[in-house]
Design a protein that fits this description.
With 96 residues, this protein is mainly alpha-helical. The chain is built from five helices and two strands.
């Protein structure tokens, strides 16, 4: 099983005003990616969600694991995801 994550424009939510809509890169058609459907490519996490890839395979083949050392997943998008799901006001109230 191979990683197709390189076909997704992972910066697209930041380009479209923070809407969690991912698009394919222009060389792969530029259309909207629908989670767990495709149609152009299926990111590794979608494959795990569908049961066509295990977590173990994902860790060994995926080059776009958010937050992992050496990951090709954009840090800007990772930081945006963190801020969307863990707002700064909540982060400040958590113990150090």
């Amino acid at each position: 099983m191979s990683c197709e994550c390189h076909k997704i424009d992972w910066l697209s939510p930041l380009k479209n005003g923070g809407v969690g809509e991912y698009r394919y890169l222009p060389e792969f058609g530029g259309g909207i990616h629908t989670q767990c459907v495709g149609p152009v490519a299926m990111p590794c996490q979608d494959k795990v969600n569908l049961g066509t890839m295990t977590n173990e395979v994902l860790v060994s083949v995926c080059k776009y694991i958010p937050g992992e050392e050496g990951s090709l997943f954009p840090k800007e998008t990772f930081n945006w995801l963190l801020s969307e799901y863990d707002p700064p006001e909540r982060q400040r109230t958590q113990p150090l």
